[in-house]
Q: What sequence folds into this?
């Protein structure tokens, strides 16, 4: 029987999340204390060696990202709590169960890169989380544990694209949340043109234990190329719709059948979409794939945010992908043409297929359009938007063909 | 009711505080009035077009008056398979309005939203930002009854 391994959620349901003393009594803020006695470069090296790869979807080595930050008078640490990928509720879970571990992680990053100011960008749908974070920050400040590192919470306002790091920065600056051209990357020129490290909530939440127990300890857990654990959130036609934290060498099948308890209502499995609504659809034949970033990429899927959306054998794949296309059409920010027009046309063609009015030519067109978007869109939104269409055409083509005229 | 000028003034020293100011305005008025957008432009030193552009970029912000109770139904894929369409139909039937509209008495506004991060409880609605999980069409009359 596969078991959970809890690093990020180590304190979940064990301490009162709204009491900083509980966190301190559980060993909290020892890691920050320890890094304060270390050379910042050594901290970056340790995090790099742990090979903790970004938990927000892109899977970039966090220490490596920090190492690119140039010297500057002012630098920022930004925690990405935008969590807009449908099916994902892990960052909310982490913060609600243990907000201090995220604050400590941010302060560790602050020491490593030489920043005194952190921001948490929290999605507008989580006003209660904003409140809880503000309370946690006040308590940590009152205790003096954060030292001279300051953290401010900013609230988003319902735009999925603001999870993209440069759009997020635009939004903190008070603008429309449209992504910037890269380079320069935020690490060099980010918030108010200052070097800015943007990491996901879960990435930060891993840091205290990495510092406490060491890079080698962390690197030995789970899959060697993407070590550690991943917090996954189960949704859809699965018995247990719960958050879990598992080592990254856990297979998709274990996630669904052992942790998830299998398919609801005694039905059979049809498909699972992992990583959020931009993730690929995965058929039964690939369920023995481990969930780590590289293994998922190798089957044309994604780990993404770790959302696990399970569909039973009664579900209509084309109808679901049509709904997903509507999401991207709605959330495209409109800045670049391939995404603005592409998501619009994808939704239009998917609607046509779904109502039984399309021909094989429409499928050819949508595939061509998808390729253009994947190559030419400015940010990950437009690049990833066709993923569900392409992977369902690959694994569930008969469901499309059934609806063609 | 607080004056929109005072609300905006309290954010003017916050770098990039426009969106925070809009949140506060919407909290007070349920939407962002046109005069307030002009004032925001003046206070933050941007053009009215820019201030309006920010207010209309974010789906959570509204520049149109809305009802006392804003009911939003999540229509993302997980809520979709769990029956979101039937729930929204039940709301439309009971309220006699379509998605995007407000009842004549100004009490209810019905909106669609994308995932609100409560996918353990699909399908999910929010009423004035508070989430309610596992909603079925037959619960709709009772939910509306509770909104006094
Ligand atoms: C459209 C889009 C939405 C994104 N949404 C999120 C999000 O909600 N949370 C997040 O952490 N990263 C999100 N990302 C990824 C961020 O751009 C960035 O890679 C991440 O915050 C970096 O942190 P990490 O390296 O710790 O994962 C999104 C990217 C794109 C293209
Ligand atoms: S999909 Fe509806 S709340 Fe997440």
A:
């Amino acid at each position: 029987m596969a078991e959970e391994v809890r690093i990020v959620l180590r304190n979940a349901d064990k301490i009162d999340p709204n009491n900083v003393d509980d966190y301190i009594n559980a060993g909290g803020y020892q890691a920050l204390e320890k890094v304060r006695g270390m050379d910042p470069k050594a901290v970056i090296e340790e995090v790099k060696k742990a090979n903790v790869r970004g938990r927000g979807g892109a899977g970039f080595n966090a220490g490596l990202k920090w190492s690119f930050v140039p010297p500057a008078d002012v630098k920022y640490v930004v925690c990405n709590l935008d969590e807009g990928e449908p099916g994902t509720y892990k960052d909310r879970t982490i913060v609600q169960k243990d907000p201090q571990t995220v604050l400590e992680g941010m302060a560790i990053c602050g020491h490593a890169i030489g920043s005194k100011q952190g921001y948490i960008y929290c999605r507008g749908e989580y006003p209660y989380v904003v409140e809880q974070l503000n309370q946690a920050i006040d308590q940590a400040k009152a205790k003096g544990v954060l030292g001279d590192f300051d953290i401010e919470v900013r609230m988003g306002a319902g735009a999925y694209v603001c999870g993209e790091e440069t759009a997020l920065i635009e939004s903190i600056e008070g603008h429309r949340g449209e992504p910037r051209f890269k380079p320069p990357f935020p690490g060099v020129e980010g918030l108010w043109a200052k070097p800015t490290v943007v990491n996901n909530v879960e990435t930060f939440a891993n840091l205290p234990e990495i510092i406490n127990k060491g890079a080698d300890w962390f690197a030995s857990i789970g899959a060697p190329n993407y070590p550690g654990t991943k917090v996954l959130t189960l949704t859809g036609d699965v018995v247990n719709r719960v958050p879990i934290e598992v080592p990254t060498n856990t297979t998709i099948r274990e996630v669904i059948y052992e942790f998830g308890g299998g398919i609801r209502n005694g039905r059979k499995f049809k498909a699972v979409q992992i990583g959020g609504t931009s993730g690929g659809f995965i058929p039964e034949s690939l369920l023995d794939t481990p969930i780590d970033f590289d293994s998922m990429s190798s089957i044309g899927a994604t780990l993404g945010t770790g959302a696990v959306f399970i569909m039973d054998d009664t579900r209509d794949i084309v109808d679901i992908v049509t709904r997903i296309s509507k999401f991207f059409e709605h959330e495209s920010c409109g800045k670049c043409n391939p995404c603005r027009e592409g998501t619009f046309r994808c939704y239009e063609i998917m609607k046509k297929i779904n109502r039984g009015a399309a021909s094989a030519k429409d499928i050819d067109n949508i595939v061509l359009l998808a390729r253009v978007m994947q190559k030419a869109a400015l940010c990950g939104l437009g690049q990833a938007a066709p993923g569900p269409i392409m992977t369902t055409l690959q694994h569930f083509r008969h469901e499309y063909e059934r609806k063609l005229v | 009711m607080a004056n929109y000028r005072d609300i905006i003034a309290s954010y003017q020293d916050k770098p990039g505080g426009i969106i925070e100011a809009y949140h506060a305005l919407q909290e007070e008025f349920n939407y962002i009035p046109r005069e307030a957008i002009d004032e925001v432009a003046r206070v933050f030193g941007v053009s009215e077009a820019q201030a309006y552009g920010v207010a209309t970029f974010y789906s959570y912000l509204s520049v149109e008056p809305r009802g006392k109770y804003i009911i939003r139904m999540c229509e993302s894929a997980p809520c979709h398979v769990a029956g979101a369409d039937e729930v929204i139909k039940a709301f439309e039937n009971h309220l006699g309005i379509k998605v995007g509209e407000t009842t004549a008495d100004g009490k209810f506004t019905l909106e669609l939203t994308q995932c609100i991060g409560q996918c353990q409880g699909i399908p999910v609605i929010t009423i004035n930002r508070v989430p309610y999980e596992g909603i079925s069409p037959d619960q709709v009359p009772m939910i509306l009854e509770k909104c006094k």
